[in-house]
Queue: 2 jobs
Job 1
Amino acid sequence: MKILSLGAGGFIGSHLTHRLLTEGHTVTAVDIETDKVTEFLGHPNLTFLQLDIRSPEWDLDSMVRDSDLVIDLIAYANPGLYLRIPLEVFRLNFIENLKIAEACVRHGKRLIQFSTCEVYGRTAASLKNAGLTDPEDPIHATFSEDTSEYILGPVSKHRWIYSCAKQLLERVLHAYGIEMGFNYTIIRPFNFIGPKIDFLLHEKEGIPRVFSFFMDALLNGTQMKLVNGGSNRRCYTYIDDAVECSWRIVENPGGVCDRQILNIGSPANEISIRQMAELMREIYAEKFRDPAVPLPEIVDVPAEEFYGQGYDDSDRRIPDITKARTLLGWEPKWGVRDILETTMRYYVSSFRKNG
Ligand code: NAD
Ligand code: UGA
């Protein structure tokens, strides 16, 4: 197949594009950045266009027309950005992505759209006076693609602009499916993690995801900061498991993923952010410690101090992966300790190699 992979230079995009090439596909890849794809930039079946899709030199229509399948991973995907540049988050994650989807509609091409588990928002257990008999029951935090309700905070908590932009895009794709027979598959990732997830703080300006904050603190002996006490929970999913499932969605045997939304995540890997900080510190002390650098302390920080005004958070999110299991026979294999150790090994070794 000739695949157009947009956002191919990012964390998920770099791993998935590598897999597509390994499977013998021809890929046209687009991204502003190339640093995560340097090892396969010269691949004979890869054309890499380093550009901003908002620039006039980008010829979306002919790119889509010449492809058999379009995969769209482009987005601002780090919560720090939802707080700092909410308008840009809306423009890129909705308006620019909509242009890509509409080009697919015009040319009758299948689109795989990366959305997010953030569309689900918060849990019923997080609401005041919810009156649940057992708020800790995982049933209240387990999200299913086609039946779960979405609970988001008020407009003043503008973190949710990311979730809303992605949700609106999903709804528009669905509507194109109903009215024009458009063929799409929506993927909702649940906290993928692995090598190349993000830059480390000392390498680049910006606000990466939590793993990189903690990794940077371990390497440099600075504080590991728990936003609002680190009580919120995530289900971490190893990138190899995620790419395997995404690959099966690309293959789409018998059209099982046509006009479907699929969660990709590891329901057994639930961990609070506090537990994650402690586990990373324990693994680091056991496997990677540089005796010259002190182990970091773990401290609590209010969200306003860490992110600024407008922050809110998903308290808990567990993927229901029945659809991925039954449609694709997929099962995540990696447990949370192994995920963290393997990802940490990658960052420790590149940190020490680069001095
Ligand atoms: P990422 O930031 O690593 O990748 C996004 C890529 O898009 C980056 O390489 C970036 O350079 C590129 N990009 C951004 N703006 C661009 C532009 N104007 N022109 C060209 N390229 C541009 O993020 P990721 O973690 O790989 O996420 C990929 C997709 O999956 C995103 O849509 C994200 O919202 C979604 N997602 C990811 C996760 C996760 O666990 N990583 C979870 C939920 C949703
Ligand atoms: C992120 C992004 O929204 C998206 O990329 C995506 O939709 C989602 O992950 C996903 O991967 O599924 P989130 O999990 O909130 O969402 O992102 P992180 O920045 O990694 O934050 C996780 C938790 O750690 C949050 O509760 C945050 O407040 C906390 N945190 C973050 C800390 O306690 N300390 C830090 O130093 C950084």
Job 2
Amino acid sequence: MCGIIGITSTPNYSPEGVAKLVVRALLRLEYRGYDSAGVAGIVNGEIVVRKARGKIEDVSRRLGFDKIRSYCMIGHTRWATHGVPSDRNAHPHTDCRKWFAVVHNGILENHAELRRRLERKGHVFRSDTDTEVLPHLVEDYYVVLGNVMSAFEKALGLIRGSYAFAMISVHEPDKIFFAKNKNPLVVGIGKGFNTVASDIAAIIELTRRIVVLRDGWYGYVSPHDIVIYDERGEPIDWKKYVITVEWSVEDASKSGYPHYMLKEIMEQPVALQNTLAGIRRDKAVEKAINILLNAEKIYITAAGTSYHAGLYYASLTSILSGTLVHPFIASEYELYVKTINEGDAVIAVSQSGETMDTLNAVREAKKQGAKIIAVSNVVESSIPRESDTTIYTRAGPEIGVAATKTFTSQTLALYWLSIHYALARGSINQSEAKELLREAEKAPWLIRRAIEMSKPLAEKLAAEISSAGSMYVLSRGIGVPVAMEGALKIKEIGYIHAEAYPAGESKHGPIALIEKGFPVIFIVPNDPRLVYLLMGNIEEMKSRGALTIGVLSENTCRECKLDIRIETPYADKLLVPFTHTPFIQLLSYYIAINKGYDPDKPRNLAKTVTVE
Ligand code: AGP
């Protein structure tokens, strides 16, 4: 949940040193966590550390990160787990003699015990973090072994927990040592330099050739060398693992938009286009269908926004195939995993492919003998690697903490899967499938039109309802997952309490809260029966004084008792994620802007949650 960067170069590649590159990479990593930041570099044979609480831009300017003249540097942006956000807890951390500086993502479970042991030996700690045990451990072993790699290996052997580490040392001043376990880390390959990073987006301006490290792998990079060992300490022929990422620098920058979130909302037509193009040519859907056809039960698991995409898939598959899909929230896997049997199918949805809750659910389901189908946006990430097949969305990097373009890309991929499954099991015929797939092809156009139609209204409405303390987002049937996604966006970006539930539930309790002006947003799918039922729900809210806001297809439900109509392009009800989601994304974006909050960095949140 923090960001890591390490760059080591020759003076030829980067005559002024690598500090400016490190700062740029940190800015790209800020979405990973942003309560403090720091860098360390080797300067004239010594370690220089600069770090403080605060946002990277401010801390870097104040402490002059980019003024450090070093050819071997590490950097970190933090989302606090152990130890409050503060200057002393910011990374990098060093040992007593300042021989080593370390940055870390993850949680070291046995840090307290190791710290006590080290303190008894005379080590003095200068932070409250779990991370600081590592440099002291390496120091301890170095005194005995006199070799950095051996000392690092020994220290890793004592640690329990999750980690991605990058470490520099005065003893081998052009090397960055690294290790990975349950937290993402990649090696970026350059000419005259090499890098390590927690995210591909951080190094995309330097190189597109990367090795995605696996759990238990460790090693070092120097400007000319890359050495990687596997979990047994055997050297790896890493050249076999090099991949070339398709993302461009443009993909990972704001490209003139004030925020990543807005850019990513606007990019949705292209993200859907690319996702469609990708699914059409890869074999993953075919493999997934085989797994699904052979399964007695089908589950879908995920967290947050990805879970909402999973709910959409479950509704769709019930409508198209009459098959019951069991959705479950990944962190609750213990309640479900015992019901999974050999050969059952589990679809795991995760844009990052690294969410710990989802990864745990996948691992436990595999132990039960399930086959796993991943849906992910990040090639070679942990969940795809541990799955039987992966359907990749091709939304490009998503930097804003709020999932936007990845949600609509996931729903499109799952729509595609659901249609092919319905066809394969004979629930729909060829011509019905063709018709539905033709609808899917319209998704990029529909979302473009939906953005155009809803943007000005979202901006206007945000100004009116920004001060609301609470609101409901309601729908029925296939629209409920979109309503749930809307409520999540309003909470996480707009900081307004928002609750979503199937509208029929109002009379069973929630309507008690309605009073004059209470905003209720209705996601109205384009289906006569749902429109009719929702019309009744709108009426019951209106008559109790609610401010009723309807998101609905143009020219439908003219007689609905709505205070505000947000019209979206006319489309099949099953395409509701593409027609109705942009409004609610834009509404939450503009609520944040109205309140003076940064939508890219919502408080208390980080992009990829790699802790349980
Ligand atoms: C959504 O806006 C959030 N950032 C969050 O709910 C996210 O969807 C969730 O943490 C799952 O992430 P994943 O898709 O990377 O697994």
